[in-house]
Design goal:
The complex is a heterodimer. Chain A is built from twelve helices and no strands. Chain B has two domains: about 230 residues, Rossmann fold, CATH 3.40.50.300; about 80 residues, OB fold (Dihydrolipoamide Acetyltransferase, E2P). Classes of the chains: A mainly alpha, B alpha+beta.
C-alpha cells in the first residue's frame, strides 16, 4: 500500500520543488481544490444527517419493502461510478424527465457525490443502532426526559463515533471521486472543475508530475482529515475503558 | 405512595402475559413480584412504570389513574437488570440526569449527587465511567440515579440477577436497610424465592400471567394456596397426591405408627444440613432434610432400609 504512495510522491517532485509548488498553487488548481473541499464538506454534513436518519428508519421502523430498501443502499457501491454519472446526467441534466436541471453546476457535483457516498454513514451507524439496547432510552424516559432530549443526550452520543467513521470515509471518497462527477460537472475551470477532474486534465496534457503534485496534496488533506476525525473519535469514546 | 392494579390484562400476539391482575401495594411497603420466567412479573412492573401499556384495566399511583400517562409523568424510579447505565456519562452525571432534566439549580444538583454517592457507597468514584465499575457498583449507581428525583415509587426489575451470588446477597441486605431508612414504596421483580423472602414484606407469586397467591413470606411457605405455591416457594416432596416439606419427614430405624419403608440412596452433606435421598418401595424418590447431628445419631448408610413418616402433609384440590 505504501509503495504506490511513495512512487506518487517521488514522481511529483520530478521537476524539482519549484514546479511542485507551481502545480499546486496556480489559480486554477487552487480554485479546483477549494471547490472540491467545500462541496465535499457540505456533502459529508448532509450525509451525516440523512445517513443517520436512513439508518434509524431501517433499524427502528417496520414497513413493507424494508429489506429491498436496505439492499438498495449499497447499490452506489456496486454501480461503476461513470455509469452513475451518466444516469444522473440523464435524470438531472438538460433533458431531465423530472424537470430538475443541475448539470454543469455545483449542485450537480454535490448531487453526484451525495449519491456515491450515501452508503458510508448508513452502514457505519446501522450496526451500532442494532446493538443499542432500549434500556437506556427507557431509563431516560422514566427519569423524565422527553423524546428529543433522549435522542440528544442518550442516543446521539452513542452514535457519534459511528457517524464520524462514516463521515471520514465519505469525505475521503468525495474528494477523490471522479467517475460520477466528470460528466455532470461540465469541468468548467474556476466554476465547476473539481481537483480530481483537474488532475485527469493534467495527465491528458502529459503533465504527469503536475498531476502527481496535486494528487499528493489531495492525499495529504485526506490523511490529515482522517487523523483528525480519528482523534475526535478517540476523545468521544474515552469512556469505553 | 400506594399502587393499585385493577383488572389489568396484556397480550403479546397470542401470548397472554397478564391475565386479569388485581393488586394493592401499600404506601411505604416493599413488595416482591415472584415467579418463574414468562410468569408476567416483569411485564406487570413495566406496566406500572409506563414502559408497557396494558390492553385492559387500569393502574393507579397514589390514587391517580396513570394508565394512559407517559413514563415521564409517573414519578417512578426504575432500576434495570442490566443497569441501563448511560455509558458516555460519568457516575456523577448518570445520577444527576433526572435532576438536570428537571432543570434544578446546579448547586442543588451537586449537593444531591454528593448525598446519593454517599448513600450508595460510591464516594470517590464520581468521575469514573460506568465501564470502570464492577457490576455491583453499576447497579448501586442505577439505584442512586433512580432515587435522585425522589420517586413516589421505586421499581426494580431483577436488579441483582446479573450479579454473582455473594454480591447479590450483600446488595439484597443493603436494599432492605435502604428501604427501612427511606420508606419509599418499592416493588422488586425476582425469580429467586430466597431473595423475595429475605427482602419483601409482601410477596406476589405469579405464574402464567396470573397471581397465584399474595401474602407475607411465612404465609406463602406455611399456608400455600395452590400446588404451584407449595412447590415454588420452598422445597417439596410429592408423595401420592400429597406434598411434604423435606424437613417435615421423620426417619427412624424402627417402624412407627403410619410409617413406611424406604431405602437410603445417597447422603449429601451441606455443612449443618444433611440431605438424605431415598427411594420408596414403589420406586418413587423422596428426600429428607435433617441436621448433621440427627443424621449422625441414626448412623445412616447408603442402601440402608429406614422407616419414614410425614409429620405434616398437604393436599390440593
Amino acid at each position: 500500500m505504501l509503495l504506490p504512495l511513495a512512487a506518487l510522491v517521488w514522481r511529483s517532485t520530478d521537476r524539482g520543488g519549484h514546479n511542485f509548488w507551481f502545480a499546486i498553487s496556480n489559480p486554477q488548481s487552487i480554485a479546483a481544490l477549494k471547490l472540491t473541499l467545500i462541496v465535499s464538506a457540505i456533502v459529508v454534513l448532509l450525509n451525516a444527517v440523512f445517513g443517520t436518519i436512513v439508518a434509524w428508519v431501517l433499524v427502528r421502523d417496520d414497513f413493507r419493502g424494508k429489506s429491498i430498501v436496505n439492499a438498495l443502499i449499497d447499490l452506489p457501491f456496486a454501480l461503476p461510478t461513470i455509469v452513475a454519472g451518466l444516469t444522473l446526467l440523464a435524470l438531472y441534466g438538460p433533458k431531465s424527465p423530472v424537470g430538475i436541471d443541475i448539470a454543469f453546476s455545483r449542485y450537480g457535483i454535490a448531487g453526484a457525490l451525495l449519491f456515491v457516498t450515501l452508503p458510508f454513514v448508513v452502514r457505519t451507524v446501522q450496526p451500532v443502532l442494532y446493538e443499542l439496547d432500549t434500556d437506556m432510552e427507557e431509563a431516560a424516559a422514566s427519569l423524565g426526559a422527553s423524546p428529543p432530549l433522549i435522542f440528544r443526550r442518550v442516543i446521539l452520543p452513542v452514535l457519534i463515533p459511528a457517524i464520524l467513521s462514516g463521515v471520514a470515509m465519505s469525505f475521503a471518497r468525495a474528494i477523490g471521486e471522479i467517475g460520477s462527477v466528470i460528466l455532470i460537472s461540465g469541468n468548467l475551470p474556476f466554476k465547476t472543475q473539481v481537483s480530481s477532474v483537474y488532475i485527469t486534465g493534467l495527465i491528458e496534457s502529459a503533465n504527469t508530475p503536475g498531476a502527481a503534485a496535486v494528487s499528493v496534496l489531495l492525499l495529504a488533506i485526506s490523511f490529515v482529515t482522517l487523523l483528525g476525525i480519528g482523534g475526535i473519535r478517540r476523545y468521544v469514546t474515552r469512556h469505553d475503558a | 405512595m400506594s399502587i393499585t392494579v385493577r383488572n389489568v390484562g396484556k397480550r403479546f400476539g397470542s401470548f397472554v402475559a397478564l391475565d386479569n391482575i388485581n393488586l394493592e401495594v401499600e404506601t411505604g411497603s416493599l413488595t416482591a413480584l415472584l415467579g418463574p420466567s414468562g410468569s408476567g412479573k416483569s411485564t406487570l412492573l413495566r406496566c406500572i412504570a409506563g414502559l408497557e401499556t396494558p390492553d385492559e384495566g387500569e393502574i393507579l399511583i397514589s390514587g391517580e389513574d396513570v394508565t394512559e400517562s407517559a413514563p415521564q409523568k409517573r414519578g417512578v424510579g426504575f432500576v434495570f437488570q442490566h443497569y441501563a447505565a448511560f455509558k458516555h456519562m460519568t457516575v456523577a452525571k448518570n445520577i444527576a440526569f433526572g435532576l438536570e432534566v428537571r432543570k434544578r439549580p446546579q448547586e442543588e444538583i451537586d449537593k444531591r449527587v454528593e448525598e446519593l454517592l454517599e448513600l450508595v457507597q460510591l464516594q470517590g468514584l464520581a468521575k469514573r465511567f460506568p465501564a470502570q465499575l464492577s457490576g455491583g457498583q453499576r447497579q448501586r449507581m442505577g439505584l442512586a440515579r433512580a432515587l435522585a428525583v425522589d420517586p413516589e415509587v421505586l421499581l426494580l426489575d431483577e436488579p441483582f440477577g446479573a450479579l454473582d451470588a455473594r454480591v447479590r446477597k450483600e446488595l439484597r441486605a443493603w436494599l432492605r436497610r435502604l428501604h427501612d431508612g427511606t420508606h419509599t414504596t418499592t416493588v422488586i421483580v425476582t425469580h429467586d424465592q430466597e431473595e423475595a423472602m429475605e427482602v419483601a414484606d409482601q410477596i406476589v407469586l405469579m405464574n402464567k400471567g396470573r397471581i397465584e397467591q399474595i401474602g407475607g413470606p411465612r404465609d406463602l411457605y406455611e399456608h400455600p394456596a395452590t400446588e404451584f405455591v407449595m412447590t415454588f416457594v420452598g422445597e417439596a416432596n410429592r408423595v401420592g397426591g400429597n406434598y411434604v416439606r423435606p424437613h417435615d419427614i421423620s426417619l427412624s430405624l424402627l417402624p412407627v405408627d403410619g410409617s413406611e419403608e424406604a431405602m437410603v440412596e445417597r447422603l449429601v452433606h451441606l455443612g449443618f444440613e444433611v440431605r438424605v435421598e431415598l427411594v420408596r418401595h414403589d420406586g418413587n424418590a423422596l428426600w429428607v432434610q435433617m441436621t448433621r447431628d440427627e443424621a449422625d445419631q441414626l448412623e445412616l448408610e447408603p442402601r440402608q432400609i429406614v422407616n419414614v413418616v410425614a409429620r405434616h402433609s398437604r393436599t390440593f384440590g
